[in-house]
Give the backbone structure.
Amino acid sequence: MRHLTWGSQSKHHNRMLRNFSLFTLALALAFGAGCSRGKFNQSSANKPDHVLVATIPPNLTKLDPAQVEDGDTIEVLNQVFEGLVAYDENNELVNNLAESWTVSPDGLTYTFKIKKGVKFHSGREMTAEDVKYSWDRAANPAVLSGTVEGYMADIVGFKECWAGKANGLSGVTVIDPYTIQVKIIAPKGYWPMYLQYPCYFVVDKNVAGMAPITSVSQMVGTGPFKMTSFTENQEVVLTRFDDYHGGKPKLESIHRLIAKDPQTRRSLYESGRADWVALERQDKAYVDSKPELAKALTTVDRAAIWYLGFGLTQNAQLRDPRVRRAFAMAINKDRIIQQGFDNINLKAEGIIPPSVPGYDPNFKGIPFDPAGAKQLFAQAGYPNGKGFNPLKLYFRGDRADAKIVAEMVAQDLDQNLGVRVDLAPTEWKALLEMRRKGELPFFHIRWSADYLDPQNFLSFMLRTGAKENSLGYSNPKFDALCDKADVLPLTQKEERFRLYREAQKIAVVDDAIWIPIYFQRDLELVRPGVEGIRRSAMGPLPHTSTDVVFSR
């Protein structure tokens, strides 16, 4: 699921800037004098070709794959830990720690053959026992996972494990050191896609205990890189694992500089201290004005949607679908895309992104209609906004893009409905926790695909009782459509997609529980000479032996 700005005049801000400057200076010195020349087209000339320096906006939220749920942290942990399967750059689900798998005719039993010779960073060979231990561990309530109820609930015995009535998943059986069998409660063709999500990653059972991983020393996986250090507000350092089962990576180390401010990230690139940085959309005009930067700009489509969501448990006024529909009609998404984002992102009519199978390019959501919005709002009992209480709009405080949307939404709702919206920028980790607890009545956030199937955006997020449905949303018609689609085999894709599209219409048009704003398109500066970065529609892939090289 796959989402602190410094105050401009505060002492804390100045101290943070001094600390960050000292840190980046030390890093530049460590890479050699060539890294501090200032000319971004020359500044990396003396940097070792086996070191990749990239930025990351927030601190890591978790160190434990069983707990992590945000895309930025998952991207880092993907270098350290792995699952039985993985997505490749063609968006295909392929074997990883498993060399093959089979499924029984009834779709209920999966048998995985484990690749031999896979080593943990500790040097010990991984076996099927480690796989079972890792899954049992994630399902243990003591580990405090916020994701396993969504991703492991289909495994026989999960409920007993999660309730503390069993020490392990009864549906997971080790057949021999290189074979593991899994029984699920109902046939679901997309189920193997779950196994590339972090709660299924394999940890060293001799190191990770039945409590959350909270230190770098406990982060022992099978991935291409080992976690060397994590210094909050400064950097994450990863070091190559020479015995990686996929072949020794070309990179010796990866440094992720934690830079919450977009201007700081851009400056790190321009000064030569970073090779690869993510930009905010408002950076594009500046980049376009600099020919050397413009040549380094990369645009990447992501299987992700930024949307407005309503929490029905926290605000009784939002439980009326007429109110939510009026909000959707009052928000000018074209203005947001054109003025706020320079037409970079694709306006979202529905929930399912274009890179996800089942996307319907002809789907139409609720159109912008201020007059209709005003009329519908009056029918709901709030003529010209009278009687409607002010709302807080929560969003990521460290993302300038989120702030742009929040400000424009607040303007539209005030102008077109007479609703006062107070902006509530929130620290990312705190925002995730509030969302998990269902404490957000009105919010702007991202949902990024955990696997490439419409189920991940519909029944996984919005079905009654779904773990990720912290909104209090429930519609029996929506549930029935999703339930039918969920159990169909992937080979019946047209029928599956038809059912999911009907469910999407209910959620977006009839109930307006989400207001889709845009499908994400990333802007990145990648230094010329940095080649071979692999990506899927969900983001960068682990840096393996076929990945990054430097050509000068």
User: Anything to note?
Assistant: The first helix runs from residue 11 to 31. Residues 1-45 have pLDDT under 50 and may be disordered. The chain has three domains: 11-79+216-300+522-550, 85-200, 303-521. The CA atoms of residues 200 and 390 lie 42 Å apart.
